[in-house]
C-alpha cells in the first residue's frame, strides 16, 4: 500500500491546540491542514506512513523556543530505523514573525528514511537552520523556499538547508544523553534537494562538520536551486562523497577539515585532513569554486 492509498483521513483546523494536532498526527495516516493560522507551543511530530497536505494559506507561527516540525525518535533510535515513509506538502513556517526570537532549527529530520518535503516555506529562522537533514536516507526536499535567515555572532557558518550526522553537538533528541545510542554517527545517504529557492541567508545548502571516523554523506544531488543574496557560500561541502550539483549559483566551497566532531560531543584533530570525494558540478560560466 502506498501513502496515497491510505484511507484513514483527518482534518486539522486552526482552532485546534498543538496537543490536539499532535494527537491527530499520531492517530491518523492521512491528514489535511485547513487554511488558516496555527500557533504552535510545541513541535509538530511526524510518524511513519503518513501523508500530510496543507491547503493554500496555511501558516505556522512559533510560540515556544524549540523546533517547529520534527520526526518522531527516541534516545534509542539508531541508523535509519526511526520514522519512515512520510510526505509533507505545503505550508509556511514563520518561526519568529511574532517576535519570538527563538534560536533553534525550524524543521528537523533525523534517523528517518523515505521522507518528502514539497512546497514548504520557511521564513525568518534565527541562529540555526531552516531545514536540517540528519542521519537520514532517501530524503527529497522539492520546491521549498528558505528566506530571510539570520546568523547569530559566531554562527555565520550555518546553512539554510543542512546535511549532518548523528552527533551530540549537532542533534538534540528529547531525553537523550551524550552516551545515548541515537548518537551513533549515522550519516545521510541519498539526499535530493531540487527546485528550491534560498534567499537572504548566511549560507545556502550543505554542511560544516565532519566525523572522527572515515564516514561520508553519500549520494547527494542538488539541482535547479536558485540562490539570491547569500552572504557566505551558496553550497558548501565537507565530508561528502558522490555528489552531483547542477544549479544556478555563484559560489561553492569544496572544503577540507582538519578537526572533526566526536559522536558523544567535542572535537579532535584529524591525523589526515578530510576531503570530499567524487564531486560533479554543472553550472554556467563565471561561477566561483573554492577547493580547500
The major beta sheet can be summarized as: 16 strands, parallel
Helix/strand structural class: mainly beta
Cα radius of gyration in angstroms: 18 Å
User: Based on the structure given, which CATH architecture is correct?
Assistant: 3 Solenoid
The global form is globular
- Fourth-level CATH superfamily: Single-stranded right-handed beta-helix, Pectin lyase-like
Q: What do we call the CATH topology? A: Pectate Lyase C-like
CATH class, anyone? Answer: Mainly Beta
Provide the succession of SSEs. Answer: EHEEEEEEEEEEEEEEEEEEEEEEEEEE
Counting DSSP E segments of at least 2 residues, the number of strands comes to: 27
> Hey, roughly how much beta strand do the residues contain?
over 45%
Percent in helix = under 10%
What's the number of helices?
1
Overall residue-averaged pLDDT value: 94
Describe the structure.
The chain has one helix spanning 18-27; strands at 9-12, 30-33, 36-40, 44-46, 50-54, 58-62, 69-71, 84-89, 92-94, 107-110, 113-118, 121-123, 131-134, 137-142, 145-147, 161-164, 189-194, 197-201, 205-206, 217-230, 235-237, 240-248, 251-254, 257-261, 267-274, 277-282, 288-291. The chain is mostly beta strands. It has one domain: Pectate Lyase C-like (3 Solenoid), CATH 2.160.20.10. The strands form 3 sheets. It has a 16-stranded parallel sheet that branches. The longest helix has 10 residues, at 18-27. The termini are far apart.
Task: Lay out the secondary structure.
Blueprint: E1 9-12, H1 18-27, E2 30-33, E3 36-40, E4 44-46, E5 50-54, E6 58-62, E7 69-71, E8 84-89, E9 92-94, E10 107-110, E11 113-118, E12 121-123, E13 131-134, E14 137-142, E15 145-147, E16 161-164, E17 189-194, E18 197-201, E19 205-206, E20 217-230, E21 235-237, E22 240-248, E23 251-254, E24 257-261, E25 267-274, E26 277-282, E27 288-291
